[in-house]
Each structure stands twice: as structure tokens, then as C-alpha cells.
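Fold this complex.
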Amino acid sequence: MTLLDPRVLGEWWNTFLRSGGLSEGWVIFINAVVVTLILMGFGLTSVLIIIWAERKIAGRVQDRLGPNRVGPYGLLQSVADALKLMTKEDITPERAERITYNLAPGLAVFAVLMLLVVIPFGPGLIAADLNIGVLYVVAMGSFGIMAALMAGWASNNKYALLGGFRTVAQLLSYEIPMVLSMSVPVLFAGTMSLHKLVEMQANFRWFGLIMPTAFLIYLISALAENERTPFDLLEAESEIVAGYHIEYSGLKFAWFFLAFFLNTLLLSAIAVTLFLGGWQGPFVDKVPLLGVLYFFLKTVLIVFVFMWVRATFPRLRIDQMMALAWKVLVPMALALVLLAATAVKLPWPPLARDVFLFFSNIVMLFVALGAIGRHLRQEAERFSGRQKWATSSSTTS
Amino acid sequence: MLNTYAVVGLFAVVAFTFPFITLLMARMLRPRKPNPLKNSTYECGMETIGDTWVQFRAQYYLFALIFVLFDIELIFLFPWAVAYNRLGLFALVEMALFIGMLALALVYAWRKGILEWQ
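Structure:
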């Protein structure tokens, strides 16, 4: 069974390389090349599958078949689309700012691909176990925002610029609750390394089970960060055509979509790592390769939830979107951080602490839902009052 | 240490060059027939009026300002969270004060109506 342990396999591989008389620098370099090739291959193939899954799931939810012509179950549809996009003409509008315009799609892909490096796929299966893992994830997220703004600004198109502005407003607003909720697992584990964060969640002490509200805040902000449907104002097709990538065609357009779909996968993977125990599950300590299976099962589950939400929900209005971030999620996340910090410092058994945290999270969730519901009812009353006034004044005059 | 950052460095180079190299390679596959109409700005078929880079709403700026405030808070929050288990009770009190001050700033912005999108 030890051969199924990736850590043992890695040791074996390193001794194999060294036995060939290679110096330490070469071993590091060869390992880096192998890891890079594997991760790039994984990232690019997974995007093709995710695009297929998204279209298939959206099709089923909306009582359609989805892609079913190319290959079995339409599986090769994304490959056909990729080939088609490669053969399309690449148009740079005359009035666009050339350098920024051409740099933006590459930067978007770069920002998302870089996240692959710190994802722990299984016990010992992590490309680079950085001790600042969580901060690295946040930093790369900011690169994506830059790419969207660059594309919107450089296109010199009014719709694209509107999309770029909305990107800044939305992604910046939702970054705050997202990062605040990510600091809760860091607080519990006392480390920012993603691999150690997973190791701390053994025996079903998943941080998402202890702090369900923090997990929910992360999921909602991840939907917004990923520009997915309840929050897709920045590429709203019916309002601003396609937002910041309106002018892009061919392969550059494909890059924005690659970044979008890979981001879905990686945000889910980070959600699983931080809140759902990553590769932890029964029998992982005996058969480490099971961890990879658990990790992908959990990730696929979250990705499915994202796609389900996209196929089901209508789009929010921009004022509702901003109010949700600043008036609901940010205060909630701040309170959650303080709650977790207080509970960690109080002297009581770990189990009692976890149960207390779970129930106070649920209470907080219902308080917030009640506040939102009351606000919406008030708004509806104001609106219907205005309606009555309008109709009565029109009949009297 | 060098081992982990070697992977990050090499991957960064590959991830950054990959989109541009594929773009260059796809040059052999794609047609290139520009004409003035095709290269004009696409605004749903209407002819573009005026410049795009005009003055925009100040509202976006206000949100960006509050964002900077909270972003700096987060920078302080993460080291605190990492070291929290090793620190005494004063860490909790200090962070409660810090978050409380920022929450006050958020309440002030809220009362001033900055958070209302008009």
C-alpha cells in the first residue's frame, strides 16, 4: 500500500534522479519542469470538460439536450469550439490601445493558471507548498481584476468601459468578504499553507462544518468573483452586450473564457481546501490515493452547485449587488472573525467550542436573513405605496 | 524553500508566455483581412459618437476608497490570524479595537449614504 502514497513515490523519483549522478540543482529543475507540464495539461483539459459540463447541466435544467452532436454525449464539443476559435480572424479595433489590449487576455489566463500551483490535490500532491498560500491566492485574484479593467479600458468602447467599471466595483467589493471569510480557517489552523490547512481538518473537523456561515459567505463572494450569474452584471449580455471582452475575437476571446471556466474550478478547489477538508476523508491515512478521489468529488460537487445557481437565478440589480456586499456580507464577516477569535481564546473543551461556534453561526445566518427580508418587505411596501399614489393622482387630474 | 519557489517561478514563466505563444502559432491558421469597417469600434452597429475616455461617475471612486481601507485591514489581519494561537488575550482585545474602529468607519460611510447606489 505504501507505493500508493504520493510522498513515497516522490522520494523514490528523487533518489532515482540522484542515482543518475545529477546535481541538486538539476533535480530541482527537472522536477519543476515535470510539475509544470502536468499542471498545464491538467488545467487545459479540465477547462474543456468544465465547459461541456456547464452547457450540459444548463441544458438539462432548462429542459434542453445541450451539446450532443460532436463525439459521444457531445463530449468533443469544446474541442471543436477551441479549434474553431483558433481559425477565426483576430481583430484589433483601430481606436484601441494596442499594447494594453493585447496584454489583457494573456494576463487573465496567467492570473488563473498561477492558482494551480498551490492547490493540494492529495496528501503530498501539491506543486509548491508556500507558507503564504492563502495570501498568494488573494494576490493572484487581484491580477484577474487588473486584466478585466485593462481589457475594458483599452478596447475604447463604451460598453467595454462600462463593463470594466462594473468589474472594479463588483470584484473589489466582493473581495473584502471573501478574504475576511478566508481568514477564519487561517485563524483556526494558525498557518497560511494550504497543505497544512488541510492536515488540520482531520477527523471531520472541517472548518466549513464548524463555521457554516463563513463558508456560505465565501461561496457567495466566489460566485461574484467568478462573475457568475446572480452577479454577472459586468458582462450582462442584455445590458452592455458582453462587458469588457466585447471587442475581442478568436483566440483572445477564448483566453477570457478559459480564465473564466478555470477560475470556476479553482475557486471551488480553494473552497474545498479551506472549508471542506480538502483531501481528508475516511481511510485516507491508510490509502493516500483515496484523498485525490475525495478532493475531486468535493470539488465537482461545488462546481455543480455553481452551475446550478447559474442556470436558475436571475441577475441582481447593481444597487442590490453593492448593498449585499457592503451592508450584509462585510459586517457579517467582520463579526464572524471576532466570534471565532473569542471562541478560540475561551478555556473550554474543543468539542464544546465547535458546537457553540456552529450554533452561533446558524443564529447569525438567520438574523441576517431576517434583516434582509424585513428590508425587502419595506422596499416592496414603499414601492406599492408609490404605485397607489401615482394611480390615484393620475385619476384625479 | 528554493525547491518550492523554483516551481512557482518556472510555472509563472510558462503560464505567462503560453497564451502569447499560442496566439503567434494560431497566426498560421487564421485569416488576416482587415478593413476599416471591420476595425471600427463595435457598438451594436451604431456609429460611435465621441470619445470613450470621458469623465465617469465619482461613485466608483468612493467604493474604491472604502476598499483600500478594508484591504489594508486584511493585510494586518492575516499575520494576526497566523500568530493568534501563540499570542495572549491582548491580541484579541487589540484586534477587537482595530476591527471596531473600521466598523465605525463603515457605519459612518453608511450613514453618509455613500453605500447607496444612485
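The first helix of chain B runs from residue 2 to 25.
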